Each structure stands twice: as structure tokens, then as C-alpha cells.
User: Fold these one by one.
Assistant:
Number 1:
Amino acid sequence: MGHQVVIFDFSLIRGLWETRVKKNKERQRKEKERLEKSSLEKIKQEWNFVLECQKKGIPQSKYLKNGFVDTNEKIFDSYGKTPPVQKRRALLDEANKEKNKFIFQLSGEQWTEFPDSLKEQTYLKEWHVNNTSIQTIPGYIALFQDLRVLELSKNQINHLPVEIGCLKNLKVLNVSFNNLSSVPPELGDCENLEKLDLSGNMEITELPFELSNLKQVTVMDMSANKFYSIPICVLRMSNLQWLDVSSNNLKELPEDIDRLDQLQTLLLQKNRLTYLPRALVNMTKLSLLVVSGDDLTEIPTDVCESTTGLKFISLKDSPVETIVCEDTEEIIESQREREQIEKQFMKAYIEDLKERDSVPSYTTKVLFSLQL
């Protein structure tokens, strides 16, 4: 039998999660500052160095000077032959160094544009650019024919250049939490793309039909935007396994949604759906379906009583303003930041669901009521 888990007042759980995430980050920041100011790290480093010297049989006279530990690692090189462990470590470091030659990383709000030297590094295979003030992707990106991963989340990018269609070997494109309002049709030329993340841009309302060419995409995240329907091009992504359309303006699902016959996870919470189409029953590989139960008035019985092992989760998401709790001391002003925290919560929640060996064979309703 299928199982339905209904959680009422989901916003309370989310509020507690937001608070926990913020407090944990604050604790990590304070602990880092404390360690930086204390001598514990230095003592630990010296102690580990002494242990390493003892393992290698290096006499104290080589690393102790006037009672203080000399942590210069050149001691290892100048004393005896390099042991097998050290050789393996050196080989690993060399391999990582070689790998990092093909990865470009950039972070920090002080960056408003890409460095000029980047255009000369056309051999790069990955770009990881996060949390900057960069608004534009340069057109010379077309020269990076070996690019496999384009990770550009949490910047200020307001449009994608048409040259992005020249990246024939691109497998991962993440432009989440930027300022995009549209996607160029040329993206459909990236036929080897496997993962596309457009979440958190808040303003995207439609996708070009040309994206129908992306037959290799298995993961599609278009959450936290302004889609009123699932684009036709998405329904033509025949290998799609994970689809997140949460936090949009969907009022209904397409009647032919069962065209996505490889789909395993479908996230629809925080939309305006009033009913679910019977076509969902035909999606035999669908194992997790998450919706918001606030407005749903019609759900096919076969969805709730599926024999395919489908986990059907209906979440009640009451307005957060109605919750008064001293644990939620500060309401997050930025909607993007709230969406990021909610995605972290949902990721943890879904992982927990997948790890469960079994789920209740009955409907569980939980109503939280706090008066503080």
C-alpha cells in the first residue's frame, strides 16, 4: 500500500529549522574565532609534528631548538629516504595539484567581474564561482570547449550569454540564486547536459522550447521562480529522474505528465495546486511525491493507495506570520535567503524519508499549537 503523511503547520518546523541553522552557523563562527585567538591550534600542530618525527626516527636535536619545536617540514626531506607513506602522500598531493589545474574557483563580494587572466585558461574543465557581485558572464566563455561543470550559484548574474550554447561538453550548469529572468534558447545546444539548476532566481516564468533537446538531463531544479505551468520542454526531457518545481505559481499539472516515465522524485510543495491528475498513477518509477495540502481538494485514490511503493507527502504550510515562538527571534528579510534555508531543510527532510526502512501504514496528522 502507498502511504500518506500529512504534517500540519509545516511553517513552524521550518521556522525552528531556520533558527537552528542560524545558531549553528553563529556557533561555528565563534568557535573559529576562539581557536584562532588561542594557542591550542599551534600546540596541536607542534604535537602532531613531534609524533611524525618520532615515527620517522628523527632525533630530537633535529626538531628541537632551545626547547621550542621547529615545525619546518624540510626536516623530513633532509633526513633519510622518504618512507613509502610519505611517497604516497606526495603522489596524492601531486595528483590533486594536477587536478586543480583544471578547476577555476572564485568567491567574495569584492569581485564584480571575472579576472582578465581567465580568458587565457581555456583548458579549464570546471568553474566554481559563488557569492560574488558579478553580474555578467563574458562572451569568451565559448572558448572553453572542455568545460564540464559551470557552478555559478549565489551571484548577481542577470542574464546568460548566447555563447553558452557553444559548451558542447557541459554536464552541470548551476545558476541558482542569481537575478535571471529568462534563459537563452541556445542553452538547448548543450546536449550533454545532465544537471540544470535554475532555482532561486525568483523571476523566471517560462523556458524556451529549444531546451527540449536536453535529453540527457536527469536532475532539473526550477524551484523558487514564477512558473505558472511546467514548461513543455521539461516534459520532453525523457531521462528526467528528479524534478523540483516547488515555490512557484502552479495551479495545475499537465494531464500528460506521465510522459516523464523515468521520474523518481517530484517536488511540488508551495504552489497553488487544487487537484492532482490521475496520470500520476501511470508513473511507475515515481517513488516520492511532495505537495502542499493547503489548497488540494482532489487527490486520485490510486495515488494514496499506490502499490509501487510511492511515498506521498502532503505538507500543510501555514503563513509564517501566524507563528509566535521565542526560538524564531529574527524574521529573515531576504526572500532568497529564506528559500535557501527552506531548500536545506527540505533536502534533510527528504534524505531522512529515503533512509527509512518503513513508513507508517496509516495517515498521521500532527497539529502543533504553541502559546508563548
Number 2:
Amino acid sequence: MLSAYKHRQPPFIQMIPLLLLTLISSLHQHESVAESSHISKIHYASTKQQNGVHEFHHEKVLSVTGDGILQSPDFPNTYPRNTVIVWRLVAVTESSRIQLTFDPRFGLEDAEDGICKYDYVEVEEPVGGIVLGRWCGSEMVPEPQVSKGNQILIRFVSDEYFPSDPGFCIRYSLIQQRQSEPEATAVMPAWMQSVDALSEAVAGFSTMEEVMKYLEPDRWQVDMDDLYKPTWQVVGKSFFHQKKSRGVVDLNLLREEVRLYSCTPRNFSVSLREELKRTDAIFWPSCLLVKRCGGNCACCSHNCYDCQCSPTKVAKKYHEVLMLKHRAGGRGLQKTLTDVLLEHHEECSCVCKKDSD
């Protein structure tokens, strides 16, 4: 019976549960939307309250081709409250820099605990957002500022309390950046170089002045004067023995030419460090000319197995040179004029070296 009764119910009675469910869902959705709208409004109000700044907010882009000024509104009178203004200065060329100079008439709301929290003007590098400075109060005029690139930002902020006068005025101007010169390769100071490295470097100079400039760029002239000052130390004499006259020329000219030019004292360059076996010192000049026997002995005795051009008269001669040595404890270089003794061959002859066999 009950089942039959249900089937006989009017259609609108059967739809009542569905209508109730739809009504409840609609009410719940309306409450959610209202709640969401309320949260959004509170968040917005919180943001405005935190900043303390209203809708007066501008950014002005200025193309800088020469000198100009920018200033707080109503300068030199009291500036308005609740203001944010940003000036973006852009130089016309990439190589230009912008210089900012503040007018001595400068006054904003004072800082709190040494921090500009409320009213201030600040300068910022657009690339990287680096703040070059933020200023307020009236006790100190900001120092001139120069951009690192061809742009710079200036931001002025005032809150809703205690506006001051006169505000600020900034004069801007262009500075042409000179083309950067290639960086010179870092050179180790001479006294820090090893003996071998310093010897190689010094050998490449052609004058004494060049050597002294390389060793001490800032005081080389003083060192030159010191080298030639008389001291109490005994300085060996520098001299060259004159070559003795050989007397009367033999009438057999051809034979004499062979004797003179086959095995004779000739100019040889010698390395002083090798010749003197002084690996602890550097000499300048690093090489000197000496007379040493040279040539061939093709006309030696037919009975000689090995005929060599050898010295028959030797002389020791002094040569004055510049000597450099590292001071003990790494305290720079000791520079002195000294005499070195070198062997010179004054006479030569073809000498037969008998076969050891």
C-alpha cells in the first residue's frame, strides 16, 4: 500500500527535496563569495596603511643631453604629503655618465634613530637595484653622485605626516666616459724575480738608464747618482792593456797574412755569469767582449795528428760592470759598480796536440 501511495503522489511533492538541496547550496556559495571579498578588502587596506602613501605616484623618464634640474614639488616651499615620484635619467650615449649635485638648500623630515623612514630622497642604480644613498633631515647636504652606467634613478617619498621645507633641488649634468685603456699586464717587481728571470730581463736593455728604470722606476735617478758617488771602499781600476806592437813586418807578406789571420786573438762575447761562475748575481752588461784565440791551423806541421789554435800569451783585465744581488731576507736588490777580472788572449799559435795513442 505504501509503495502504491508513493507512486500516486503529485510531481511537485516529489521535487521538494531537490528544491531544498539547491536552496541550501546557493546560500552556502553566497556566504563564501562574501567572505572572500571581505578578506581581499582587508588585505588591500592593510597594504595602504603599511605604506602610508596614497595614489600620487609618478615615474618620469628624462633623456639627458646636457645640464638640467629636478626638484621636489613646490621647492623651495613645503612639499606635499603622501607623494612618491621617481625620475629615471637616461644619458643619450652608452659611454656617458650622469652626475648629480644637490642644492645647498636641503630639508626633509628628520630621521628616526638615524634612519630615513618617512620622508626621503634616494639615488639608485637601475642595473642591480643598488641604492647609492638615501637622505633626509636638514643637517647635511648630500655629496655629489655619479652613475656607474648611462642611467640613474631618483626617488622622492613623503608620508602623511610632517612635511618640511624647502625640500630638495638636484642639478644633473653629463660626464663623458673616456675609453678604457687596456690593462697593463701585471709585472712582478724586479727584486722579487728569480736570479735567472731577472738576468734575462736585464740582458734585453741597451743602456744603463733603462736598466735602472726597470729596477727602480720611482727612484732610478737617485740610484744612478749613488752608483757614482765616491766611497771609502777601494774600487778596483778598470783598464784595458793596449796591444803591443809586433815590430817589423815580415817581407813574406803572404805567409804573414796566413799567420795573422789563421790563428789569432779575436773578439768573443762571453756571459759573465758563466765566465765567473757566479749564479748568485746578475751583471749588466750581461756579456762582454774579450780576446780569445780563434781560427784554424790548416798549415800546421804535416807530422801533427791534431793541431789546435791555442793561446801563447794571456793577460787578466778588469772591466767595470753593474752587479745586482738579492739582499738577505728578501729586502730588495743590492746595486753596486764592481770590477770583474776576465782572461784575454794576446797571442795565439797553432800547437800540435799529439795523439794519445
Number 3:
Amino acid sequence: MKGLYFQKSSTDEEITFIFQERENLPVIEDNYVKVQVKACALSQINTKLLAEMKMEKDFFPVGREIAGIVLDVGSKVSFFQPDDEVVGILPLDSEDPGLCEVVRVHEHYLVHKPEKVTWTEAAGTIRDGVRAYTALHYLSHLSPGKSVLIMDGASALGMIAIQLAHHRGAKVISTAGSLEDKQCLERLRPSIARVIDVSNGKAHVAESCLEETGGLGVDIVLDAGVRLYSKDDEPAVKLQLLPHKHDIITLLGVGGHWVTTEENLQLDPPDSHCLFLKGATVAFLNDEVWNLSNVQQGKYLSTYLKRCDGEVIKWSL
């Protein structure tokens, strides 16, 4: 049985993908589940994070978001039994690649797959689904009537976040990085309150949001990255598509929540003082937050998928 792995060169400039023959999986341990993989998503491999967490090794398994059928369970497994259909995210330290016929995984990294969701849809959207649900439910406490700015709404994360926000009765504003993205967002139903086209670099996100909210500002911002420095110090592409951090602070309403994906966010004392005056909060959306606690991951996955079972999410790939 073969599995796909990648190997970094000594200079870290090249990555080589190879198939390695794997021995038969060992006897299932107490809390582990053996899963026959039906679908696996290919997400970006964060080599920087692996190095920071001292998890570097010669060969790294490829593919972590999986969907499949339970073949066997350990003696202490309480949530699953053979023939159950499951979906989950393999942990960073997993020795089994998702791109393999069979994997062995702790039960806390899996949840039951909703019956109406296909294998490819489950594996392809579970990561961004958990990210969106974490951002809106746990980090910003979304509730009916709130206004939400979702940056880059046509992305996988943005599309799911928009649908979750609409499901909770929120007013959604979004940005589009191209004409195609803008048209895609304008076709969504329920419709988005305003789509801000930032593709030409001329749109003022802060002004548009303040105008849409009657000058009050938005309650929640989910960004897709921000500019930290002046125009002279930023790449041209980043200048065009991303708002400056000052714009985000300006458009936030009183008591607002800013959920950022910018891991190197730097706030100067005037920025912090402005956030203090608004009583606003800043939260970081860490892509790997579910790896910090496998018990908490199972809670996130289960809660998110329960909402998807009633076709709340359209599972856009």
C-alpha cells in the first residue's frame, strides 16, 4: 500500500513529492480508528509552522482532510463503529498521509459525515468550514442583526463564511478581487448587502462600510490579510487587494470584533488606543488551532457539520 509524502531539499527551496510503500497498519490502539479513505483534499503544506513546532523530519505525509468509511475501531472508541461514514482532519504529527488507501487516526479527529454530503465535498470543505465557524461563532460571537465584513468573499473561506453569516441572520458586506468574483458574489441568495470591488485599487473599503452602516461601522470583520506598512514598503499586488490595518480599525463599530488571518499583525500605540476607545477586540484565526486540543477539534467539527446537514452550506469547492 503506497502513500504520498514530500521531502524538502537542504536549501528549503525545492520540495519533492514521492510515493512510499507502507507496511500494513499495526493493530488498532485503544482510541484509534482505521479508515478507508474515499476522498482527500490537498491543502497547502505549512513548512514554516512545522519548523516552529519542531516537527521536521525527512518525509512529511501529504493530505490531511479526509473522508471515508470506518473499517475497524479500538477497544476504547466510543463515537464510531465499523461502516460509519466519517470526515476529519489529520493532526500535524500524523505519520499517515491522507493520500493513501487506509489511515489510522485518533477518534477525536473525526466526526460523522452528514448523509447528504458527498465524499469530495466533505473532504474539500471541512478545513475552511471549521475556520469560518471558528471565526464567526467562537471568536466574534455572531448573532442575528449584526453587520459583517468578509474580505475576499469569493474564496473558499469567504464563501462558507458568507453562508454561515446569512444563516445566523447577519447583514453581510464583502470585497471582490476581480470582476468574476464580483459577479459570483452578486448572484448569491440571500443577496449580499454590498459587494466592494477592490480589483482596480480605487475602492475605499472603510468609506463603503461606513456608508452602508449609516456611519456606525461594522460589528465583525473577517479579513484575508492586511497591509501593515506604507505604500512604498508593500508589494504592488498586496497594495491593490488588501486594506490597510488603519482602514479596518476605522470601519469597526463600537464593541466590534476584528478576526484576522495576519499572523504578523503589528499594532502601534495609536492603533491600540483607537481600539480601546471603541471597546473593540482583535482575535487571530490560526489555521491549525484544532491541533492544539484534539478534544476541542472534535467539538468544532461536530458542531459545524450539524449545521451543514440541513443544507445550510452549499459546499462550494
Number 4:
Amino acid sequence: METNHLLIKLVLLASCLIHQRVCSPCNFPAIFNFGDSNSDTGGLSAAFGQAPYPNGQTFFHSPSGRFADGRLIIDFIAEELGLPYLNAFLDSIGSNFSHGANFATAGSTIRPPNSTISQGGSSPISLDVQLVQFSDFITRSQLIRNQGGVFKKLLPKKEYFSQALYTFDIGQNDLTSGLKLNMTTDQIKAYIPDVLDQFSNAIRKVYSKGGRRFWIHNTAPLGCLPYVLDRFPVPASQIDNHGCAIPRNEIARYYNSELKRRVIGLRKELSDAAFTYVDIYSIKLTLITHPKKLGFRYPLVACCGHGGKYNYNKLIKCGAKVMVEGKEIVLAKSCNDVSFRVSWDGIHFTETANSWIFQKINGGAFSDPPIPLKFACAR
């Protein structure tokens, strides 16, 4: 690990010398986030109803719009940069957007969905809609901020849009949407180029609005997520030694390799912008495949769920309740050892896991270029 840190410092120093600049931590006065439930801090809850308790139990001690027991990776990023937690753009109650906004919603995809959320489809707030919201936010935030008073305190300064960190954590639902349609691995791989075409165009649109500092996560090892294992089972011969579905991880790896290639291309095309590609896949795979060594338990079993091998039931999700003789009964409760668990609800990670993942992200060892978060403005 010390060798990795030394290498990162040498890479950073070399970059400084080559580009003849002073390398000091960046000033990120704001964060603008685009994504799905991995980084949703209240968007879907504002639109379709609050994620129920025990979501939020560990840190916020009540539902907070997050599909987790506590903080998400985006929360730890904000903490590290000395910024407030991001409020969801869609949340009109008590929100402060002076240091950024979160356009992510649970279930969001890069490509516009073909089915409604009530039909079991994806969120209607796909990446193209998030971009419309962002564009509108830029214009209206400045018009309203100029009215002064409380608005001046609750909305970002104009210059923040060019200085902000733009974070992207989206794409997982585009892959699982193919699984829902019973597509083969090859069929899903075949539409990935179109997904990434649309993602690349989204980056270009943010760039055209002044964004210059991009922080892009790849996708998780799908074959190791309890909900994928439960809902889209594969033959035992396609399960690896850690209990993960080999073909599902193959899809994720292919997506990630193509995403990285696109980011490299965007880095050349938009040469005055800084791009950091973050290998979330490898970090999460390490955590899932070496839990005991890292102080965790049961990585393929949801902490908050209901029944079955993976403690996951798509019809009885975390916090689900029923009425029995006039009394409300919680069917899907939290486990008692959440601080040692990897999976919160079969889809998302626990706060403890998110914290561990963030520590790996923060140092830069899993990033391209391999620089720490606070230096992500370096080109």
C-alpha cells in the first residue's frame, strides 16, 4: 500500500513538472452529481415517496432519501471536500443548493426507459432528463439568486459552475434492464456502445455549460449483487468460487472497458477539462470476495430484506410493511450486525461498506490518472 501511495505522488509530481504548474489541492466550491440509486440523496423519494425506515437508521436516524442505512459514497466525497451533503434537485423541502445539487434518482438509466416505474421499469429521470434539469438550474439559479436575500444564500455563485466537481455514477440499470428482458450476455454487450454514445454526449453537454472537472465511476460487479443473483439466476456451473455469477460480471467488465475507452477519448477531445475514471468495480469486488480479511460478513446476503438464500425478495423490499388485524408489521427489517455487512438491501451497500470503498477511491490508487480526489482538477 505504501508503494501505491509513493507511485501516486510520483505521477502527480511528474504531471506538475510536465505541465509546468504548481500542484496543490483543488478548490471545489460545489458538486453537481448525476446518477442512479448509488448516489441518490433524495430525488426519487421526493418524486415517488420516501424510502422507508430502516433506510437512514445508522447515520441520519430517520429516512433521508437514500437507499442505505446511512451515508453514500457521494456523501463521503462531499465530506472530504469540506462541502455540505448534496440536496436532491427534486426536493423542495429545506434544500440548500449553494454548494451544488444532486440530479440522481434511484432507478435512473443513461438511455431513456421504455417502461414506466409503476410497471417495474426504470426511473423516468434518465440522464437526458437530469441534463435538462441541470441546464434549467444554471439559468434559473442565477436569475433567482440575483434577487438577493435568502436566495443569495441558498443558490450557487455563477463561477461555481466552472469550478465544481461533476460526478457521474450511472449505467448499472442500463445493464440490468437487458437482464429483465431475458437478453443474453452478447445481446446486452451489443447495445452497450449506444449507451456509451449517449453517456459521452451527456459529458459534452455538461462541458458546453462550463463543466471542466469530471469524476466518473464505472459500474459494480453485477454478478455479486444479491438482487441480481436472486432475480436473474444462472446455472451452478456459471457461479465462481465466491458465489458470483460469471456471465453477469462479464457484462460489467465489458461495459467498464468500453467506458474507460470513451473517457480516454473525451480527455483528448475536451483537452482543457480534467477527467478522472474511477474503478469502482475492482474495489467492490475486493470487498465482496475478501470480506473476512477486511472485517466484513456475508457479502452476498442482504442485511435488510426478507427470506431466501440472499435475504432478498423483490416484492418485499427493505422496510416493507403489512397490516395484520389493524396493526402495522414490518416484514423486511434490518439485521443486527449492519456495521459488519457489505450489502444493505441486496442492491445497495451499507454505510460501513461505502466508507471503506470511499477510502480506496480517495487515495487515487484505483483512478486513472492515479491522483487523489482533492487533486481531480489536474489535467
